[in-house]
Amino acid sequence: MSTAVILAYIGIALMIALAGIGSAIGVSSGGNATIGALKKNDEAFGKYMLLSALPGTQGLYGFAGFFIISAKLSTFVVDGVMTLSIYQGVAVFAAGLALGFVGLMSGIKQGSVCANGIAGIGSGHDIFGKTMVLAVFPELYAIIAFAATFLISAAL
Amino acid sequence: MIVPMQKYSFLIFYKEYNSFLEDIQDIGVLHIIEKNVEVTDEINEQYTLLNSYNKVLKFLEKRKIETEKPNYDIDGELIFNDIVNKQKKEESLKQKLISENTELQKAEPWGSFSKQLIEKLKQKNIFIRFFIASKKKFYSEQISKFNTEIINKTKSSVYFVLIDQTGDPIDIDAEEIQLPERTFTEIKQNILKIEEEIEVINEVFDNYAKTSIPALKLMKDKITETSEYKKAILNTSAKSEDKVMLLEGFVPQNKEKKLIDHLDKNNTLYVRENPTLEDNIPVMIKNNKFSRLFEPIGKLFSLPAYSELDLTAFFAPFFMMFFGFCLGDAGYGLLFIVGAGLYKLRAKEEIKPILSLVQFLGLATIIFGTISGTIFGINLTETDIDLFSGVKTLFLNPDNMFNLALILGAIQIVFGLIVKMMNQIKQFGFKYSLSTLGWLIILIGGSIYGVLSSKEIINENIVLYIILSVGSFFILIFSDPKINIFARIGKGLWDIYSTVTGIFGDLLSYIRLFALGLSSAILGFVINDIAMQILGSAPVIGHIFFVIFLLFGHTLNILIASLGSFVHPMRLTFVEFYKNAGFVGGGKEYKPFAKQNIKT
Fold first, then answer.
1. Same domain, yes or no: B341 and B400
2. Once rounded to an integer, what is the mean pLDDT over residues B420-449?
3. What are the DSSP calls for B539-596, one per residue?
4. According to the model, what pLDDT value does residue A109 have?
5. What domain range includes position B12?
6. Which domains does chain A have, with CATH numbers?
7. How confident is residue B597, by pLDDT bands cut at 50, 70 and 90?
8. Which residues of chain A make contact with B563, given a CB cutoff of 8 A?
9. How far is B411 from chain A (nearest CA, A)?
10. Does residue B319 sit in the same domain as residue B329?
11. B530 with B554, same domain?
């Protein structure tokens, strides 16, 4: 168990955990807002559901990032032992930090944008499309972090 | 392009004004200039009425009944009033039903009994009194003393009557109930009656839903026309002690003929003049069949101002390209084209332009998917399929895609500057466009020099210096033709600083195309990878779940990626492209005073 491997797996854990937490909190904000909005207008449940689901993508990116990196890491197994240089370990750790933290914050914040949109629709304003457009913007940064993870893994 | 408008002013004798207005509404090409008057209460009432009509129409449509042949015999207004009244009646009946049900629950334990009998007994001084007590208390000493008869028992309570010779209050540990007004059966009958009434009302609603929706829509359109008519009267100026009416408006040049023919035939007094920039001229855009598909996207942001260029035709091809770049999977693009094509066969007329737009976007997706070698999440650069081994080297890898995104961004920015030049020439004159020309010389000349010198065709630095000096000359000296030379140089220096940092930031913004394209492709790979693992896990169930997971995963990927691929190119258009093209916007939409399109 070299330091490099430890660092790499901590990175993977951060990636999955933090991005997943971000999505979980994000979709819960949406869910809570939906329950409130249903009390005022219970006909637009489909729209509420769709908006609540939008912050769910950060967790998917965390998982997909894990998948790519673990596929790459499995190519470094020599004689049944995973051997990584310290540079590779740190690289994976960095990718984990990046995707994890960006996924965490963008998921939470995207969730609050969606929750406000849901509350607005519940109050009778016709803002479904515009909310979807606005909700896509925080997600861009999670996408960038995911692209960076892919490029890091390709360069390992 | 923006259709040129002509300004019309009409002077009509007040007695002929109503027929004049009706004819104008019939021809339907005049956009009336609105005066700054408050809308009257009458017109506001019409709007509220229209709202109610819309609600009633939605209510009928929600009943989801097969429509039959439309019945126009009953007047739409009568139908509307009838429905509104019946909705109120239904509401009050439903309330009554709730209260009756509560009464029913209270009376249920007591069952049927005869009130007359109890009254008769009362007259003979025998009182039958109704009590509820808990089981424990009922069987205790206190109550057993009395003459009681159990009527009903529940889990925890006993319903009983106490027979007594006085009517005085009895002090026992039980709750005395007033004689229920009606028996259980009586209430039940009443409930059935109310439910029947509600049924009848609902049948009436269903009947209306079957045949009367078109008649209601007709009435609604009539009300809209009447309120528009009243608004037109509101925007008319009365002159010469209310004997002459003055109406002003705009007509698009390509629709004037019918109006002029009518005016000349009736010898109407009118003035036709070119509009000045101070008038708030309405904007009607007209584009070729391809760009017309992208007009709704432009309208999401703002219509152009009357005096500037309409940028729809300019951003349309870029938007298509960027969408394809961001979605970047030939397989998904194919699904778009085929799916939209199939839906077109049975779609309403209004939706067909959107479906055509989807098909064009799918085409761009196929192109860019092919360039990057991605089809249904399979990365053709890495797989070993003999069919593609010859062309494998032609597919672009991520590094190339990164550069391609930046190059496309640079092209759009330079194109935006060219459009800005055209805009400035159109609106202000050639002098004003020279500073933009300077930037274009530097950017285009600089990049051509860069390409040629990296290929060692031109090596002299002097060429670069000439380009830079000519460009800077234009930027500094012509930054603002209205002020003196020193202020111009100062403004030019500030212009250099803000534009350089601006263009740099704008260029970097186009990296999002690369990031989005990469992420949708990678998610496709991951879905395929996981699906392959599912396939290998179990013999029969593995195959089933393999198919399910593939369908589910790729559908999810298409939905999420399409949303991002639509929104981000939109943002690039409205922010980066419009900024570099000098788009001002804020145009008012052309809404003529016309009859509604009543389709019967």
1. yes
2. 87
3. SHHHHHHHHHHHHHHHHHHHHHHHHHHHHHHHHIIIIIIHHHTT----PEE-------
4. 96
5. 1-37+235-284
6. 3-154 (1.20.120.610)
7. low
8. 132, 136
9. 22
10. yes
11. yes
**Least CB–CB distance from B518: residue in A60, A67, A150:** A150
Task: List residues in chain B touching A: CB distance below 8 A.
Answer: 398, 511-512, 514-516, 518-519, 522-523, 525-526, 529-530, 560, 563-564, 567-568, 570-571
d(CA B163, CA B127): 6
| Cross-chain residue pair A68–B518, CB shorter than 8 Å | no
Residue A34 has pLDDT above 80, yes or no: yes
Q: What is the CATH number of the domain that holds B251?
A: 3.30.70.120
Shortest CA gap B356–chain A (Å): 20
Binned at pLDDT 50, 70 and 90, residue A55 comes out as very high
Q: What is the mean pLDDT of chain B?
A: 85
HSE toward the beta carbon, residue B117, CA cutoff 13 A: 6
pLDDT above 80: residue A94: yes
**From CA B70, how far away is CA B215, in angstroms rounded?**
7
B146, B166, B182 — which closes off a domain?
Answer: B182
Alpha carbon of A21: minimum distance to chain B alpha carbons (Å):
20
A→B contacts (Cβ < 8 Å), by residue, are: 57, 60-61, 63-64, 67-68, 71, 132-133, 136-137, 139-140, 143-144, 146-147, 150-151, 154
The chain B residue lying nearest A148, using CA atoms, is B515
Q: Does one domain contain both B354 and B255?
A: no
- pLDDT score recorded for residue B599: 46
Same domain, B219 and B124: no
Q: Tell me whether residue B472 is in a domain.
A: no
Is residue B249 included in any domain, yes or no?
yes
Residues near B440 by Cβ (< 8 Å), separated by ≥ 6?
B414, B417, B418, B421
Say yes or no: B222 and B83 in one domain.
Answer: yes
Q: Which of B379, B522, B559, B570 to mutate to test the interface with A (most CBs of A within 10 A)?
A: B522
DSSP state of B460: -
Residues in A closer than 8 angstroms to B570, CB to CB, are: 133
Report how many domains make up chain B.
4
Q: Are B23 and B261 in contact (CB under 8 A)?
A: no
Check whether residue B122 and residue B198 sit in a common domain.
no
In a domain, B434, yes or no: no
Same domain, B312 and B196: no
Residue whose structure tokens are 């370990």: A89
Given a cut of 70, whether residue A12 has pLDDT beyond it is: yes
Residues in A touching B511 (Cβ below 8 Å): 144
Across the A:B interface, residue pairs with CB atoms under 8 Å apart total 52
Residue entry with tokens 């509350």: A119
B268 within some domain: yes
| Coil/strand/helix, residue B186 | helix
